Amino acid sequence: MNTITRLFDFPYYQLEKHPLSDALVTKYGEKWVKTSTQEYIDKSNALSRGLLRMGVKKNDRIAVISSSNRTEWHIVDIGVLQTGAQNVPVYPTISEEDYEYILNHSEAIYCIVSDQELYDKIMSIRGNLPKLKEIYSFNDISGCKSWNEILELGKDTSNQGELDSIKDSITENELATVIYTSGTTGRPKGVMLSHKNIVSDVLMSAERVPFGEGQTRALSFLPICHIYERMILYLYQYYGVSTYFAESIEKVSDNIKETKPFVITAVPRLLEKVYDKIIAKGSELTGIKRKLFFWAVEVGLEYEPYGANGVWYGFKLSIARKLIFSKWKEGLGGNLGLMVSGSAAIQPRLARIFAAAGIPVMEGYGLTETSPVISVNDERNGGFRIGTVGRPLKGVEVKIAEDGEILCKGPNVMMGYLNDQEKTDEVLKDGYFHTGDIGIIDSDGFLKITDRKKEMFKTSGGKYIAPQLIENAMKQSRFIEQIMVIGDGEKMPAAFIQPDFEFVKQWASRKGLNLADNKAIAESKEVKERMQEEVESVNKRFGHWEQVKKFEITPDVWSVDGGEMTPTLKLKRKAIKEKYQKLYDKIYREGEK
């Protein structure tokens, strides 16, 4: 079988082309446990046979929620897809309310969780999930069925023939998965991706992310429920790359040293953390060592690909690599040669310094709706340009609309949003998908993202934040008259708050506090502490990545005349941010100096 048309074809292709003894590797306790390509396929088939015996039919949906990436997830993924059912991966950190919505909206009949905490969350809303028949778990949990029971049920191979004929009947245009993304209106939207959507994106991206001999180990830790990491995992399977799963984001640096990967996928926030850690270590050095370290950093920050800086720069770079950057590489396992970054813009300085250190970061761009890659940098053939998201994939057409919006067309564009024709029609118009991002294509065909069309933004960890939702919830507090959530490209959301000055004055006088004017209110420690209580109580309604972690109180009343509001009383976000730049820096830049 040479052609891959459906997602479950990837493991079989791997078995034929690059069979591995360590296709998928997960750490349990202190031990890394390897699953071979053959075992991966055998277990997926057992799971499929078990599901068929449980009455799972074509187009049924099974939700899978895991708080870390692990081998079991992939066995379930292939096992579910082979039956013609759909895998609905769900973020582990969302609220119970969102779980309830997603499980009901997708009409999931089974739910597989990874651990006790997730099991408890689902059990707390169990009574509101009429379609859900049963919950299974990867870990052993008392009172919960184990996923091993499905494998046991499928041990008997007598229905393999039935499975084979179902597999043969599944076409590339059929729905494979529904992935829920946070919408600005509050309810997550279910993005429907077909086998063809994701397979085409994997194969088009494969040309851009090549692996040579000996470059065959990856460490995976970005959430697998997100299409970005999932698509990359299929790509690893295609190339015969052994995939090791990190225990958690916190343990990534230990796991990198243990597994010595050649490639990792990252988000800018992670690269920022790695860089900050390296700089902190360098700052502890003294004398000539310290001077050398920061000289190398200066050299790195000037980096341009393809020797554009000339011979003398090349000479300095080779010294910096030998003396300093080689140690950075050692600290990252000694074998790391490629990082692929997506989901939010990377600061050009980081792209320069890592490339200078011999660990280039290839930045790409895409959305869940585009399976996800639209464009990506590639170091070969002049395909790498810092500050851009690379050239569009071959087979994906990108054009810029009159208002600057990025439009795209290709086999990777979603089928639509589940049960929501109206929202589907809003983004799929005239044969193009409307991304909601603003960008330009330079004369060499590189795509550059310049702005967000909508007000939603992403933190540097790649999580979407819908500021209006949070703002509307916060404004229900008597203490808060106006609030603007900030944090585009930063590590966390924060906010500027304009208090309800009249109400706060009444509160202060009841407390015996003498706050003469608005400035005094804005600077009052007691007001800030009371405001903190308000913010924290509203935060509970949101996923942890959406919660406002810090805020500053502004001394002015926001108004149309003051330039903070439009005539229809919408926030002028850019103007407010500029006006309170000092407060912004206090929130995000304090402690960096």
Distance between the termini: 58 Å
Give the overall average pLDDT. Answer: 93
Assess the beta-strand content as a share of residues: 15-25%
**In CATH terms, what is the fold-level topology of the largest domain?**
Rossmann fold
Beta strands, count: 27
Low-confidence stretches: none
Radius of gyration: 26 Å
| Main sheet summary | 9 strands, mixed
Q: What is the CATH class name of the largest domain?
A: Alpha Beta
Helical fraction: 25-40%
Structural class: alpha/beta
**What's the total helix number?**
21
CATH architecture of the largest domain: 3-Layer(aba) Sandwich
Number of domains: 3
Strand order of the largest sheet: 2-1-11-10-12-13-14-15-16
- Overall spatial form: globular
Keywords: Fatty acid metabolism, Ligase, Lipid metabolism
GO molecular function: long-chain fatty acid-CoA ligase activity
Pfam family, one: AMP-binding
GO cellular component, one term: membrane
